[in-house]
Amino acid sequence: MYAFTYHKPASVSEAASLAAKHADGKILAGGMTLLPTMKQRLASPTDIIDMGKLDELRGIKVEGGAVVIGAMTRHVTVATSAEVKKAIPALAALAGGIGDPAVRNKGTCGGSIANNDPAADYPSACLALGATITTNKRAIKADDFFTGLFETALGEGEIITSISFPIPDKANYQKFRNPASRYAIVGVFVAKKGADVRVAVTGAGSSGVFRQKDFEAALKANFSAAALDGKTQSPDGLNSDIHADAEYRAHLIGVMAKRAVTAAG
């Protein structure tokens, strides 16, 4: 690990000021990705801005037809929250399937979304539920937030403060996980609210999380697994690696989508 300067801000505004001042610095939320890459010397930030003291960014509340989760809320808190289980059980189940107990007890909702790992779970929930990501500067719709592999719409000195997940009528998340890391080889989140249906796919796209519009159209007409019969995902633009090639991932997207619809229904 390379040397760095450590900061522990007492407020979001102080953290934002430090982030804007140190262009090569990094925000530390749960540290589940940042710290391992630093230990392997794959990342060498000049400054680390530790958000761990900011209790104002923790907590869960249900208001205005949505579940609002503070950015520093840990996965285990989301997974075990009675409010989340009642309002959006699919979101609680998603959080409970992230990594292992060590990861769930340290990793944070905001950190996962800000990192936008192409195999992370929360981005699919954000897209499928039509979430709004609130920062210290503005509110960003999920459709505009995720811009590519490990890339988001966040600007310099911009920090996620909370995420608002609208409560759906029906929702479910199905993940074909890597047995070692529990990252999604393919994960599909399906959500229905009124006449609208959204299907988000993680773990598969070469540009990260994406919506499957053909599946959405079919499910809007008939919200059942049978509606997806004959619908296929093209392997073009999907990842191929040692875990699964693009053709296999394309097949898994259809399988996971059907499972999610069946479970949600």
Label this structure with key terms:
265 residues; alpha+beta; Uridine Diphospho-n-acetylenolpyruvylglucosamine Reductase, domain 3; 2 domains; five-stranded antiparallel β-sheet; four-stranded antiparallel β-sheet; 11 helices; 34% helix; 25% strand
* Helix-residue proportion: 25-40%
Number of strands: 14
- Contiguous low-pLDDT stretches (5 residues minimum) are none
Structural class: alpha+beta
CATH class of the largest domain: Alpha Beta
- Kindly identify the CATH topology of the largest domain: Uridine Diphospho-n-acetylenolpyruvylglucosamine Reductase, domain 3
Oligomer: single chain
Strand content: 15-25%
SSE pattern: EHEHEEEHHHHHHEEHEEEEEEEHH
Rg, nearest Å: 18 Å
What's the main sheet like? 5 strands, antiparallel
Helices, by number, come to 11
Strand ordering within the main sheet: 4-5-10-6-7
Walkthrough of the structure:
- The protein has helices at 12-21, 34-39, 75-80, 82-87, 89-96, 101-106, 109-115, 122-129, 142-145, 213-221, 246-264; strands at residues 5-7, 26-28, 47-50, 60-63, 66-70, 132-135, 139-141, 146-148, 151-152, 160-166, 170-177, 184-193, 196-202, 210-211.
- It is an alpha+beta fold and 265 residues long.
- The chain has two domains: 5-49; 57-264, Uridine Diphospho-n-acetylenolpyruvylglucosamine Reductase, domain 3 (2-Layer Sandwich).
- Strand 13 (196-202) and strand 14 form a beta hairpin.
- The termini are far apart.
- The mean pLDDT is 96.
